[in-house]
Amino acid sequence: MCKYIDELIENNYKKNAIKTIATKHNISEAELKRYYQTKFFYDIANVVNLNELSKINIEEIEKSLDDEILKNEFKFIKTDLKKIIEKSLYIAMTNGFSTNINHIESGVMTANAGDSAEFIFVARAILAGFNCSSVDVRSSRYDAIIDFNDKLLRVQIKGISSGNNISFKDRDRGGQGIDHKHKRNVGQRITSKDCDIYVAVDKQVGICYIIPMSWADKLDEDKCKTVKLSDVVNYKENWNIIKEMTANK
């Protein structure tokens, strides 16, 4: 067993010990935390029988159904549901999609992760049956275009991987020698002038929140900075928003 694991065991697996261990070995706390997560998810996944676990889920769902109509509907989809649950459990037991397994430098990886969110959405939109393409111009205020029912929709895409918030405001420009308070460096609010749809993509599992900017435009200046995902749950995987918007455009 490696020294990092040994020292965590000595600290009874307490997460607040990670910083001390990382400092001792001159590595970043975030890097060490990722190592522990990857190792432990791998260890647990290797001893869990996903087929049996999916059966348990199916049994629990079946027990929760009292209505006869729902019971019959459940019987109809039972086999398909078991298969998709097993696939979903596999993703869960690997802590979501693989991330930076080649240890790319953090600055480069941040940019790449942003691109990955864009590609995840475009791929999922195409899979859902929409004509969708990425926009190659980096200075554009939108990242993709959806062509549906002879209408074009501009889509801005943001990736989320941790936390439960999204923001309808760009990040302030930072870095050495940059005046954070200067107007041109302060993050601008994202409005319907920039795009028609704002999509938040969960990079861990691929879930998309498809939010019409007509909703976001109604937020006040403070509220738009931090919006809880629970506030936009109606737009979670709501691909019909695209149909509705093209019908009204």
From TrEMBL:
<dbReference type="InterPro" id="IPR021671">
    <property type="entry name" value="PD(D/E)XK_Endonuc"/>
</dbReference>
<protein>
    <recommendedName>
        <fullName>PD(D/E)XK endonuclease domain-containing protein</fullName>
    </recommendedName>
</protein>
<dbReference type="GO" id="GO:0003676">
    <property type="term" value="F:nucleic acid binding"/>
</dbReference>
<feature type="domain" description="PD(D/E)XK endonuclease">
    <location>
        <begin position="110"/>
        <end position="218"/>
    </location>
</feature>
<dbReference type="Pfam" id="PF11645">
    <property type="entry name" value="PDDEXK_5"/>
</dbReference>
<dbReference type="InterPro" id="IPR011856">
    <property type="entry name" value="tRNA_endonuc-like_dom_sf"/>
</dbReference>
